[in-house]
Amino acid sequence: MSRYFSEKFAALTPYTPGEQPKDMQYIKLNTNESPFPPPVAVVEAAKNEAAKAQLYSDPECSLLVEKAAEYFGVKKTELLFTNGSDEILNFAFMAFCDKNTPAVFPDITYGFYSVFADLHGIPYKKIPLKSDFSIDHKEYLNGNATVFIANPNAPTGLALTLKQIEEILRANPDNVVVIDEAYVDFGGESCVPLIHKYDNLLVTQTFSKSRSLAGARLGVGIASESLIADLNTIKYSTNPYNVNRMTMAAGYAALCNQEYFDEKCKEICENREYTAIELKKLGFEVLDSKTNFLFVRSDKIGGKELYEKLKEKGVLVRHFTAPRIAEFNRVTIGTKRQMEICIQKIKEILEKQL
Ligand code: PMP
């Protein structure tokens, strides 16, 4: 730390992204990316825009917003596109939390929530997951705080029902409830239609997972017109050109090619079921995932040891050190072939344990 660094950030622990190794070619099952590249039409759209990169991007994302409004069944004024969904989440912390309105989220969830809260000096409370790692939705009723819930949750993969989310929304009429749907396209139920029923609901989604655009950075917030107006105030006070031209065009083309992504999501769900069955055969506990990853543990091998041994064998999964989940690993679902190799390597590791 330099002597110039502001005191207010001195104690900040930044988010630790998953490894992006350059030393060798891994089967990369550690950051919940799609194993499938975007279709040619999406790549071409981005390439064409690159030729106009001397011009600023459209701060209103007009074409993309128009297409997305059609896709999500909402008004154009009920949408805001951002640089990944991390940015819309950051905006939500800035817009809807402060010293008097703390944030509340599960103890085990997306690690960025506490980082954003710390960054903005927002007090927060972490509510423990139940012993089966599900979210205890009753704990979020009448809390007088801004609620952040990933649904399905990460890294557990477990989802709340829309009925449970509606209970939370009804019990918090004076607070914003943010539902982070980063993984919703892999079997979850989206609460986007509820934005017309609850003006305190903000839904966030990403193009990083189900639409193969993690490296392009595109996220979206969907909410009542007034919440989106607040979020726009934050956007235009930080970075009006937050979505670059290439990404904007890629996002538009992605929405025009939704069948491709639906097909790929289906394939990932099939590969997830295959992997879950194979891991259960090997004695693993596998949480019931509605996402593109599985959260798994074995009583035959520790979480960290399995992560390290898989890495030695060229398969990268994600291990978290938080005590409650240290025995688990989060395994992103890749192609069938990648999952077959992953299972094979786990078998080899377990055989050596005997
Ligand atoms: N929410 C959750 C629950 C996530 O796991 C992630 C991905 N790390 C994000 C949001 C952010 O994704 P992105 O910024 O790529 O849209």
The first-level CATH class of the largest domain is given as Alpha Beta
CATH-assigned fold name of the largest domain = Aspartate Aminotransferase, domain 2
Radius of gyration: 20 Å
Largest sheet: 7 strands, mixed
As a percent range, the share of strand residues is 5-15%
Please give a handful of descriptors for the protein shown.
354 residues, alpha/beta, Aspartate Aminotransferase, domain 1, Aspartate Aminotransferase, domain 2, 2 domains, 3-stranded antiparallel sheet, 10 helices, globular, binds 4'-deoxy-4'-aminopyridoxal-5'-phosphate
Describe the structure.
The protein is an alpha/beta fold. It has 2 domains: 13-37 and 259-353, Aspartate Aminotransferase, domain 1, CATH 3.90.1150.10; 40-256, Aspartate Aminotransferase, domain 2, CATH 3.40.640. The protein is 37% helix and 14% strand. It contains 10 helices and 12 strands. The strands form 3 sheets. Strands 2-8-7-6-5-3-4 form a 7-stranded mixed sheet, with helices on both faces. Helix 8 (258-281) packs parallel to helix 10 (336-353). The chain is globular. Bound molecules: 4'-deoxy-4'-aminopyridoxal-5'-phosphate. 4'-deoxy-4'-aminopyridoxal-5'-phosphate is lined by residues 84-86, 110, 150, 154, 180, 182, 206, 208, 214, 219.
